[in-house]
Every structure is written in C-alpha cells, then in structure tokens.
Amino acid sequence: MNRREALIGLNLIGSIGTARLKRLLEIFVCPQEILASSADALTRVSGIGHAIASKITSLKEEGIAAEIKLAKERGLSILTYEDEGYPLNLKNIFDPPIVLYVKGQIRDDDSRSIAVVGSRRASCYGLTSAERLSGELARLGITVISGMARGIDTFAHKGALKAGGRTLAVMGSGFAHLYPAENKKLAEEISHAGAVISEFPLTALPLKQNFPRRNRLISGLAKGVVVVEAARNSGALITADFALEQGREVFALPGAIDSSLSYGTNELIKQGSRLVTSVNDIIEELFGSLLGEQFAPRPLRQCAQEKQMLSKEESFLYNLISDTPLEMDEIIEKSHMDIATAAGVLLRLEIKNLVQQLPGKQFVRG
C-alpha cells in the first residue's frame, strides 16, 4: 500500500480529519504506519480514543482497493490534500479534508471564486436574485460555488451554467447517495462546467451532521460568501460563520423586514457584513481597482430565442413573461388562453430553456 492509498483509507474512518492526522503523523511518520499500528499505540495519541483506534485497526486493504475501484467506475478522481491539484484556497483553511472525490475538473483559476448560498425554502425574490447574481459573476470569469441543495443553491448553479461560466458544487454525502435526488441532472451539468465535490466516502448517506462539514468546504473554496436568504437557524448562516473564521469576506442581500427568510441576511448586515445590491459591490470589495486587469468578462451566450424558431403562441407567451415572476392565473388572464393550451406552451418553452417554473406555479424568463 502506498502513501496515497493509505490516506484514502484513513478518510474512510470518517472522524479523523487533518488535525488528528497531523498528530498521528508526528508519532507514526507515514500514513501506512498508522494503519499498521496497534490500538494501544494509537490511543496514546491525543484525540484518538478507543472508538477511532478500533476503526483504524479494523480497516482492510481490500476495502481501500474497493473504494478506489468504485470511484474509477463512477468516473471520479480522488485528490488527497498532498496532491498537486488540491484546491489552494481549501488547503489554507484550519481543517482541510484529507480527501476530495471529484466529478469533473477543478482548475487553478477556480481559486477566483465566490460562494452563493441561502435557504432551501426560498422566495421567488431569493431564487431570481441568486440566479441573476451568479450569472453576472460567471460572466466576469468568477467561479460560483454552492451546495447543490434545493432552493438558493440550485438557482446559483443554474445561473452560472446559463451564463456559460464555471461552478463547483459541494455535497454533504457520498456520490453513491447524491442528494437531493432530483438534482441528478444538475449534478451532471455541473460536472461538465466545473466539478461536483465531496469529502465523504462513496457510500456516505446525506446525514444531518454532514452538512456543517460540507459548509466549511463551501466557504473554504471561495474568496467570499454571499448569503441571499437565510431564516433564523439557516445552514447558510453556518457557512457565513465558517467564512469569518477562515478570513473570508461575507456579503448579504437585504430583504423585507417582515420576511422570516430575510432575518439572517438582515442580521448579518447589522453585524457588519457588506450589503449587496449588485455584483459590483462584491467585485469592488474583493478585487478593487484591479478589476480591469484581473477579469476578462465572458461573452454573453446568444439569446436562445434567436437560435430557435418559435410558434406564434410560444413567441406570445415568451414576450409576456419577464424576469418578474408571473403566476399561472395571470398568464391565462393576460394571454386569453385556456389552461391546457397555456400549460402546453409553457412546457415547450421550458424544454427550450426560455422559461423556467418557480415554486407556486410562477414563471420567469429562463
């Protein structure tokens, strides 16, 4: 067993982390020696109790080989924190993961990145703001990072993809249990325009305790974190806390004072986070006057409507819908179509990526 394989094996333990690993390496010198040591020797190391020692001694070389083989079969690459391609931003946090499983490709220029996070149960205002902001960041050549969760995360990734930019998604589970399941197609799209990343072994379930660990990676990969919407106990606020601990900038989108989803962002602003009304607020804070030298804006994709021939009905509804969410009842009223006709036309527009449906049967431009 080589050093890299031993590190992958130690990551399978699930409760070691680089802090404990460093203490182990001070005694045992190399990861192979850690795996070959007795439980009594292991428990003499600070922070290594009987439970962890038992897991280490019971780990078999066959199990490590099976994990590596399964990752290869799934088209994943495995990076250890000692590998050259390991993200530099992440390597510099207090407790970087020992191993990253990657579907896609992490590039050096992904260090120029912003995390966009927020509530799973977001409002239309939050969803459209996340998508717009992420699209603008992506067109400036900035990689958008998020957690591929429902709500704000999903729309942040979609915004970057629609702009032709790069995006990284960090999961709170192993690749054998992609979560949420409805984002399987989105994960595939992200892997072609960036990467889907997890520190968890392939069969790890999306357990509640995994997501705070996931959140520290989202902030650790980025130069700054934008919180779009967050309720009082939102996981997005945990990401903001990690960002501050890691020396990252935190930005927040203001919201209505009577909205529970804006409680977290408004509190962040009160506590000194930078208020965001446009992408310029983020760029100026992080990159200042070097904007022109550092960024080569990506060209806008040709409008999808120019690429496709629309029927008269499709063109009519497309022109009726804007960036402001429109409810189905309003569309029927303004178009004078019956519900079946309108639903059919909207579906065709969705398939052509010209229109998208938001929660509550509301529609906006794609």
Topology of this protein?
Layout lengths: L2 H11 L3 H12 L2 H6 L2 H5 L6 H9 L2 H13 L3 E4 L7 H4 L7 E6 L8 E5 L6 H16 L3 E4 L5 H11 L4 E4 L13 H9 L1 E5 L11 H12 L2 E4 L7 H11 L3 E4 L10 H8 L3 E2 L3 H9 L3 H4 L9 H4 L4 H9 L5 E2 H8 L3 H13 L3 E4 L3 E4 L1
Parallel strand pairs: 3-4, 3-7, 4-5, 5-6, 7-8, 8-9
Antiparallel strand pairs: 1-2, 2-6, 10-12, 11-12
Overview of this protein structure:
With 366 residues, the chain is of the alpha/beta class. The protein has 3 domains: 1-73, DNA polymerase, domain 1; 108-294, Rossmann fold, CATH 3.40.50; 304-365, Arc Repressor Mutant, subunit A, CATH 1.10.10. Helices cover 48% and strands 13% of the residues. The protein has a 9-stranded mixed sheet, sandwiched between helices. Helix 1 (3-13) crosses helix 6, helix 11 (210-221) crosses helix 12 (235-245) and helix 17 (312-320) crosses helix 19. The longest helix is centred in the middle third of the chain and has 16 residues, at 124-139. It is elongated. The chain starts with a helix and ends with a strand. 44% of the residues are buried. The model is unreliable at 289-307 (pLDDT under 50).
